[in-house]
Specification:
Number of domains: 1
Number of strands: 2
CATH architecture: Orthogonal Bundle
Radius of gyration: 21 Å
CATH topology: Ammonium transporter fold
Order of helices and strands: HHHEEHHHHHHHHHHHHH
Strand content: under 5%
Shape: globular
Helix content: 55-70%
């Protein structure tokens, strides 16, 4: 799937007439929504996670933690436009990786979704459906996907807050982006083998959340634990700012899942609605479990509950009907709660690793759970509308396909984790 349109596709009249003209392929509504969605995702990182990280740790680690998030945002910018975007979405080098190259020369190029040279491979040949008829510039796509990449690395940082050397983090960010994130992104979204095979990840449950959850857990293992006194008691230094950062993260998810529709059409609205219904359900479920088992609600628990469903709904948000958001919210508020509050205290593997914010539970477990929910609830009509690569994607509640999709979803999660 090429990342650039042929020069003949750029109207010469547009180039020669200055900035007053509009290219015929541009849809101003799609363009405006894509830029808005990208900005909302950006707000999740800066200031959202910068505030959240700086306030959820002990005061002595506040500046270091916030600065880790800020640095990751800036470093990812340059890596992304110089080589990362094309490695994730450009011309194929191998089935899991694109060829590196700069994405600063796109000028008036349309996004890949609008290019006549784009090939969508399915069992019935080349197809084009309304959802992928969105028309906006390639620069919009580079911007939107950048914020996804940056947010992934910043969420990963939650596993190593409170003890990681900042200079080590400065090296880690570009290296992990090159050798891990771009592989998953190309394989799943850039036309690589997972996409061709029919693994479904609408907006990043695998590429972003399983990736950050597992990578954060492994990083926490190698970095080592916090001091024992910090592991025993690590109170937030400002609970109101924790809620502020969490609120920016939650509301920013409108752009995260709504923007993944790549157009201002009905799927964008459905994805945003599903996202917020499910997140509210998960927050209330997690809080209820805290009250029932521990006798009182927890602010941090409520934030964790909100976060887990934002993760769980992500791989399915635009591919499932609204009634499933309630079910996914209850699953998101209970299964990761059990792994964090019960399993974590009993399994020696989890006990050995000091995952500061429990990223393996909120993002790792949540992302895999969301992928399984795709197998349960994927609506074949919505899948066709969004050009899922293969036809046999019926969720279990729509007839299923003999467990084939579930096997694909689990295999896809295993590859991303690896």
């Amino acid at each position: 799937m090429p990342s650039e349109a042929p020069e003949s596709y750029i109207p010469s009249a547009y180039i020669n007439s200055g900035y007053g003209a509009t290219p015929e392929w541009l849809n101003k509504g799609d363009n405006a929504w894509q830029l808005t969605a990208a900005t909302l995702v950006g707000i999740q990182s800066m200031p959202g996670l910068v505030i959240l990280y700086g306030s959820i740790v002990k005061k002595k680690w506040a500046v270091n933690s916030a600065f880790m998030a800020l640095y990751a945002l800036a470093a990812t910018w340059l890596c992304w436009v110089m080589w990362g975007y094309k490695m994730s979405s450009g011309e194929q080098l191998v089935p899991i990786w694109g060829k590196a190259g700069s994405s600063l020369g796109f000028r008036f190029l349309p996004s890949r979704a609008t290019m006549p040279s784009t090939v969508i491979y399915r069992k019935d040949g080349k197809v084009k459906t309304p959802a992928m008829d969105s028309h906006f510039g390639m620069a919009d796509m580079v911007l939107f996907q950048f914020f996804f990449a940056a947010l992934t690395i910043i969420m990963l940082a939650g596993s190593v807050l409170g003890r990681m050397s900042f200079r080590a983090w400065m090296l880690f960010v570009p290296l992990w982006l090159i050798f891990s994130y771009t592989v998953g992104a190309f394989s799943m979204w850039g036309g690589g083998f997972l996409w061709q095979w029919g693994v479904i990840d609408y907006a990043g449950g695998y590429v972003i959340h399983v990736s950050s959850g597992v990578a954060g857990f492994v990083a926490a293992y190698w970095v080592g634990p916090r001091l024992s006194k910090d592991r025993e008691r690590f109170p937030p230094n400002n609970m109101l700012l924790v809620l502020t950062g969490a609120g920016l993260l939650w509301l920013g998810w409108s752009g995260f899942n709504g923007g993944a529709a790549f157009g201002a059409h009905v799927i964008a609205g459905l994805a945003v609605l599903n996202t917020h219904v499910a997140a509210a359900t998960s927050l209330l479920t997690w809080t209820t479990l805290d009250v029932f088992f521990f006798g009182k609600p927890s602010v941090i628990g409520a934030v964790q509950g909100m976060m887990t469903d934002l993760v769980v709904i992500t791989p399915a948000a635009g591919l499932v009907p609204g009634w499933t958001a309630l079910i996914m919210g209850m699953l998101a508020g209970s299964i990761p709660w059990w792994t964090m509050m019960v399993l974590h205290r009993r399994w020696w593997v989890l006990q050995r690793v000091d995952d500061t914010l429990g990223v393996i539970h909120t993002h790792g477990v949540g992302g895999i759970l969301g992928g399984i929910c795709v197998d349960l609830f994927a609506d074949p009509t919505l899948c066709r509308y969004m050009e899922v690569a293969v036809e046999d994607t019926n969720g279990v509640f729509y007839g299923g396909n003999g467990g084939i999709q579930l096997a694909k979803q689990l295999a896809g999660a295993a590859f991303i984790a690896g």
